[in-house]
């Protein structure tokens, strides 16, 4: 028992709240919780309040007098997409991408879709004009094909890179999204032309933190 509370009832109340919100897109009221578990609470809404506040103390939901019960937004749909972070991928000259699973996260399907994804940390500056900066998290939809103009994670031999995919008849072009040039006027990030290319996925979301100006 948690501090004099019935642990089983705490779990049942939390489950009821989550299922209610998934079904009705909102959390139940104190009165509705009391009605659901009438045999336990005996119409004592003050006791229901105590249990709800205990769940808040346990950081399993939040409760305010004006806004009522609030649970995690993902429960509105009840659908999550589990995505693994698997290492780094350069936005520049290809190099070997680390592919060890570093972490696994659950994301609402409304944000990332239901398709299988993986996360790579962007390294370098060749994709800044496409809004991908060094250190950003790239959400990559797993697939072995792409449309012209999409940003792909491409494998050339044992080396990976993030680039704009431009298929040609005899080869493919991987193009940077950075128009900067060297002192001699040549592209700082030249096109990569290759006949041997494996597409690992398409970048369809990017997470980055704004950097304060110094």
Plain-language structure description:
This protein has 5 helices and 11 strands. With 214 residues, the chain is of the alpha+beta class. It folds into 2 domains: 7-75, Arc Repressor Mutant, subunit A, CATH 1.10.10; 80-207, Umud Fragment, subunit A (Ribbon), CATH 2.10.109.10. The longest helix is centred in the N-terminal third of the chain and has 18 residues, at 7-24. The protein is elongated. The termini are far apart.
Entry keywords:
214 residues, alpha+beta, Arc Repressor Mutant, subunit A, Umud Fragment, subunit A, 2 domains, 9-stranded mixed sheet, two-stranded antiparallel ribbon, 11 strands, elongated
Which class of secondary structure composition applies to the elements?
A: alpha+beta
Helical segment count: 5
Q: Write out the CATH superfamily name of the largest domain.
A: Umud Fragment, subunit A
Task: Give the uncertain stretches in residue-range form.
Answer: none
Number of domains: 2
Average per-residue pLDDT, rounded, comes to 83
Order of helices and strands: HHHHEEEEHEEEEEEE
What is the number of strand segments?
Answer: 11
CATH topology of the largest domain: Umud Fragment, subunit A
